[in-house]
């Protein structure tokens, strides 16, 4: 079995559903100019500016894949050689969220390396459920951890897809969650529905489906 070193298209789609894909610059919750899939800088180290032009889906995924390399390397160098692609993708998603040090020092790595099919791996994912909000730890990441664990234990049958196919599926996912006709086109009606959803849940109503909006959509 060939060792896996790169996230699959399915893994990229999974991460888009967690992080969002926005083709024009926007400010994240910390006020930092961001573009694509949570990217705050380009391959050459230049920071994203609000005046930067929009990018294509293909460019967004290419930029994100460059950002993912450090996390993929952490998974590749820290885990056994025979994990499948869904397992690699789930671990990379986890690492992207908790950081390289958090992943390498986790009980999750130890369990995977001892027995990659150990059912308690699910609880090892879920142990990282808390995030600090206003100085208080809250289990706001539990649903994400459950999705990562579910992906980890899903049989691997990866199918390669183009960037546009990945983005269209992401938009359809958003539309389905909002109860809209899922045509895969992020048009005026979809943006209006997103803004109304954001207002309903006390979010910044900008029509941008970023991590905060997705975190609530994913619970529906």
Structural class: mainly alpha
* Form type: globular
Distance between the termini: 38 Å
Tally of DSSP helical segments: 10
Number of strands: 4
Strand content: 5-15%
Largest sheet: 2 strands, antiparallel
* Rounded mean pLDDT score: 92
**Helix and strand run:** HEEHHHHHEEHHHH
Radius of gyration: 17 Å
Helix amount: 40-55%
- Oligomeric status of the shown chains? single chain
What does this structure look like?
This protein is mainly α and 220 residues long. The chain contains ten helices and four strands, in the order H-E-E-H-H-H-H-H-E-E-H-H-H-H. A two-stranded antiparallel sheet has the order 1-2. A two-stranded antiparallel sheet has the order 3-4. Strand 1 and strand 2 form a beta hairpin. Helix 1 packs parallel to helix 3. The protein is globular. The mean pLDDT is 92.
Q: How would you summarize this macromolecular structure in one to three sentences?
A:
The protein has 220 residues and is mainly alpha-helical.
